[in-house]
Every structure is written in structure tokens, then in C-alpha cells.
Amino acid sequence: MKVSRQATHGAVVTFRQFTRARYSVFASLHRQVRIGVLTVAMLASVNLPKVEAAQPCAGMSADVDADEHELREVTVTGSMAPLTALESARVVAVLSRERIEAAAVHTVNDVLKLAVGVDVRQRGGFGIQTDISIDGGTFDQITLLLNGVSISSPHTGHLAADFPVSISDIERIEVLEGAASRVYGASAFGGAINIVTRQGTPTAVEAGVHGGSYATFGADARMALRPVTLSASVQRSDGATANSDFTRGSVFLSGQVDEEQYAVRWQGGWSGKSYGANTFYSAAYPNQYERGNHLVASVGAETKSALRIRPELFWNRWTDNFELTRGSTVGENFHRTDVFGSRIGADIAWAGGRTAFGGEVREEVIYSTTLGRPLAPEQYTRIHGGDGRQYTNHDDRTNVSVSVEHTFVLPHFTASVGALANRNSYLDARFRLYPGVDLAYRPDVQWALFASYNKGFRLPTFTDLYYRAPTHAGNIGLRSEENHSFQLAARWRGHVGIGRAEVQAKGFYHRGSHMIDWVMYSPDDVYHSAAFDLDNMGAGAEASLQPDAGVVTALHVGYTYMHQHRRDDVAIYKSNYAMEYLRHKLTATLDHRVCHCLTASWSLRWQDRMGSYIVYADGQQTGRLAAYHPYATLDVKLRYTQPRYELWAEGTNITNHRYYDLGNIPQPGLLVMAGARVRF
User: Fold this and answer.
1) Distance between alpha carbon 606 and the CA centroid of its chain, in Å?
2) Which of 41, 364, 418, 552 has the fewest CB atoms in 10 Å of its CB?
3) For the segment 248-295, what is each residue's pLDDT rounded down to a tens digit?
């Protein structure tokens, strides 16, 4: 273990490298030592350099000073068993809390715009309804996790981003690109996004308020009283465009008991929102409206013996009420989706490496007025809050999976090899195999080279299978999507004279089969849920710099280029999602000091989307396709920070540029917000 110390009063010990030795040495230091731990079950990670939002002001506590220092290498969990950052064989982009606090963001969806490999397509402003995808995939092709527990919806990915946490709850967000089904199972077709929440401190209370454009107002509060953390948030707005008003709220409770021989962790949360859905799903109906609730609950444990065993129980519930015309029952539908199950994982280290294995049983159930198979009248189920109406349709499916992985760790080399066997009652009784291998070579402490192959899959959602409307036709005959994902990456990090720097480059090729999309075959057609073979390929690079001194405190630039290739010759007039990918995406952030305790963060995002949308005029289709145009947005946030409070003001899209993420749904122009936060 290598250690460096600053020869100044109150110096902070920085651990440069870790082995698997016991950490009793920490007790001999007679001072506090912070160690960041990526606690996500089965997520192979690396720790990117921390992006500091601001230098601490005079009068801040020693603990806050310590927080401005980081451990260059931290202990992380591995793919299915824990690995240190030096050992891990796969790259994960980490959006740190410091970077989140510095940026002009209010929702998880806003934060993900900073990730260069993530496509965030908003319907309306303020992140009310968002489709999130990775490396050219669709919003249904990723797994979303909260502290390592899946919160993805089998109903539709349109609702999967209803996170029951606020920005103040988040410690970091981790983005894993490429197929990860051998680790996360179904839906990890193109990658995974994990939200890690802040852990409880001995006693801490904080609260914030904000307001701004379009009569927007919000407030949140958070209390951490070890071992329990409780938070709540509310927000409302008149909306930046026609029929885009909304109200939303969330409550999140988490806790943990950490003993010498075992640990137990639990979490529960609720999010709810009601919003005007102007042209969200069809420009032929501009006055749509939607209400939704999302409940999450899970409890897990972990033993601390040589053989680590990790059992877990989980449950998710979504309820949704959609009005095709606001205030009218014509075209209205209701849905209730439940996902519950259990999983168990275990790992053991021995002379030949580290072996991990696990299993999961997951049940997915939907009751609906439109999705699923028709019920007999005596089986109808009352809709809570539905004014006496009943669910008339139902479907369910059972997913069973078992997985195994072995990891070889040498001084300069790591190899993780494993596979998942999965069976789903929707398909048949047969187990299907999804293998993968991740390799990492580290010639020295600065360089790391990565290569991986993983096979992924994704089951069609209940919407893909059953949804029918005047403009849409589902397809009960859809098969599961499959993806062969290949990735190469190289990373360098070290000191360049003026500060710490990191440079990373990647290339990927995803060979997709039976890719599901909503498509039109002619100008006067409806959208069909169909499948075709589609490959996504691309390359990207990122660079970050943290100067040791000066006005600039952090700089980050990232760019990704993508290309698609269809392997079938079926003529398609219009793709609604899969072929409307980002050809180019560029992100850049600059953090700097303005004066004592006042900092600024600038964020630039430029992107060019392929595909086109059908132009509507006065609610009528014109029969004309319009291509998406490249656009850029520039955001800025000012923060005045003191130990017990902070004041901030921000402008998003300060050039007031009008643009479309999805056709016929205009995005907001300039939004101005301001707020305050206090800590006790």
C-alpha cells in the first residue's frame, strides 16, 4: 500500500494504491480517513477523478476540507464480486456529487445529459417525461437501478425514469455502457444506469427552496439520523409550453445496520406526478394529460465471512392514468404494474481467483384497461381512484435466471468470465445462455486498457405487445431482442504539471437482432410494433483536467460519434425511436471561481440527431417529413457557498434556442431559476 502525506498542519492522508490487506492500519493514524466505496451490487466500476464544484471558503470545517481531497484509488465492488478500482475489468462513467451540485440541473434526467454516451430525449421541460438510452439504443434497452436494485418497468420505458429521489439525495450516478445481461439480466441490453444515494451521517438536516420561470416553485428537505435517512421534495410549474403544467413529489427512506459479521440495508420510496402531456405520444392529440405513481421497496443483507452471501427481496409498483384528451374519458386508459421477486448472490476468494454465483426469480404483472389479455367479467379488478371503473385486461410473466462468474486478478491483468442462463415464461420453458468476458491490462499506475464482449437481451414490454390506439398497433408475436456487444477502451490518468488529468477513448460495436421499434411503412400507415436487425457502432473520447491552482477548478470535454447499419431490406417510412439516434454528441463543462466563495459552472451540449418526424399543422398530419436539426444549449450556474448555507442562481438554454428532442414537441427556451439551501 502506497501512502502520501502533505507536510502541513491538518494534512490529509491520501492512499495511492490498495491491496487486499486488512485495513487495521487506519486505526493507527489517529485521524479520520475517508474511503469512497461503490456499493452497487455486481457493478464493475472505476473511480473517475472528482470534479470539484468549488474551493471551500474560509471558516468551513476540517471535515469539509477533507472532502476536497480524494483517494486516487478506492475500494469498489466488482462485476459479481468486489474488486478494487485497480483490479476492475470494465469502465463505468461516474457523475460525482460535486459535479452534480455545480451544474444547472434539477432532476436525474438533467444530470444524465452530462454523460457523453447517454441520449436524453425530453417530452416537455423540467424532466417531466424523459426517454433515456445509451450508445444508440432505445429507452427500453437499459436497466435503471437505485442503489443496485432494478427499478425498470416492463410496462414501458417511458415511465421508467420516475425516480423516487431528488437531486439532494444523490451521491453519484454510474453509467455502464454496453450489454450487461450476465450481471443484470433482462433489459440490460445496452447498459445500466445506477443511482447511488447518500448514506446517513450521525446527525444532519438540510433543506432547500427554489423558484423561477413559469411560476416554478420547489422545496426539498433531508434528514440523516444514523442509521436512517429520510427525504422529501415537491415541485410545481405552469410549464414552459402549452399544456405542460405539472406537480410532482417524492419521498425516500433508507437505512442500514452494519455489524461485524453482517450488514442489512433497506430502502423505500414514492414518486408521483400529474402533468399536461402536450403532443407527447401523438401530435394529432395536443391536449393529453397523465398522472402516475411509482413505489419502490427492497431489503438486502450481506455476510462478512470468507464466503459472502447476499440475499435480497424487492418490489416495484407503477400506476398510470393517461387521458388522450384532458378532462375526457374518451381514449382514457389506466394501468397498474407490479414487479416483485428475490435474488441471492455469493462469492468466495481462493487460490485460483474469485468465484461468484447468483440466482433471481422475478415476477412481472400488469392490470390494465388496454394492455394484456382480456379478463372474464368476474375477474375484473377495481381501479383505485378510478371512479368505479375496473381493470379489464391482465398479463404476467415469470423470469428465472442463474449466473456464474470467475475473476482472475494478477498484478497487471484482470479477466472476468461468466454467463447467465435465463428462462422467461413469455417465451417458453427453455433456458437461454448469455455469456460475457471482460479484460483489463494495466502496464503501470497511469495506463489501463480494456476489452470486453457481452451478449445481452431484452424482453418486449407490455406496451410493445398489446398497445392499440387509432395511431398504434402492438404485436403479440414479438421475440426478445438480442445484442452482441464488443467494446475497446483505453484510459490514462496522472499529473500533467498544472494539475490532475484523465483522458479516455472508447470504441464499440453492438450487433442487434430482432430490435423492436414503432414504425410506419407508408405515409398513411399507423405505427406498428415491429422488429428488425440493426447494428450500432461508434467511438468517443473524454478528457478532464483539475488544475492545482488558479481561477479554473475543473474542465471536462467529451465527444461521441455513432453510425447505424440495418441488416434487412424491409422498407420503412418512419422509425419512431430506434433509428432516431445521436450521430454526434459533444459536452463541455467549465468550473471556475468568480470571487471569494462565489463559483460558476458552464455547461455546453451540442448534438446532431438522425431521423425525421412527421410535421403536423393544427393537429392534422401534413404528410411531410422534417429532419432533426443540430442544436446547442448553454447553461450556467452561480453558487455562493458557506459552511451552513448556499445561494445559487442559474440559467438553462441561455441563448434561448428553440429545438426538438422528439418531433412536434417544442423544448423550452431560456429558463431562469434561483434558490437557497441551509444545513444544520
Assistant:
1) 20
2) 552
3) 999 999 999 999 999 999 999 999 999 999 888 888 888 999 999 999
